[in-house]
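Q: Methyltransferase type 11, please. Structure only.
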Amino acid sequence: MFDELVAEGAAVPVEGWDFGWFAGRATEERPSWGYAALMGARMAAAGRALDLQTGGGEVLAGIDRPPPHLFATEGWPPNAALARERLAPLGATVVEVGEDADLPFPDGSFDLVVSRHPVTVRWDEVARVLAPGGVYLSQQVGAGTVRELADAMMGPRPVDPAREPARARAAATAAGLDVRRLEAESLRMQFFDVAAVIAFLRKVIWIVPGFTVEKYREPLRRLHGRIAAEGPFVAHSERFLIEAVKPGALTPE
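A: Structure for Methyltransferase type 11:
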């Protein structure tokens, strides 16, 4: 059974941010603030909006009413191609640009910038491309997210504080933005078999950097035995919501 589950997890396509395959194999609680609905409401009221690190455009594609001018960025070419196809009905322009790179937009281009689970945040660039009075809304991955699974694969290790919400507040403030909302939650996750673990680690590559089935076969075997003996493997995802405003007033188009 272990070998069959390993083969199944290793074969799952991992492009984009569609987690539909995990239905019945893993679960994750959702944050109470409802990022997709929040973002959709802001998009409906925006004139010029930008979604940073859109992945395959899965979340952005769910908005009911796109703004007149909609842009998205993505750094991984396969995801950028998916996003162009998925977001075409919204009239969105998808620009391929790396997570750490300068944004290819003029100063003050957008009254709304959003990002779900950015790998990195260039706060200086976010502040630059926001118009005065513009809003940055983002759901981000917190420090120590899914640490139980990382520890099971690599052994116990200290939590990197780089993703602490307080650090995001400080960085946003240093870039000249006013943080008006900051909330954090710890959310229960369950993995019902080792195939789900493998697919997750292949998809969310920063949990166990450099993960391959071959490299981590023995920890995976131990985890398989643990699930068989004790039931689903439980971990916790850390999430926080940050909303920041660029001082000033929006100028109507």
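A: Brief note, in case it's useful. The mean pLDDT is 95.
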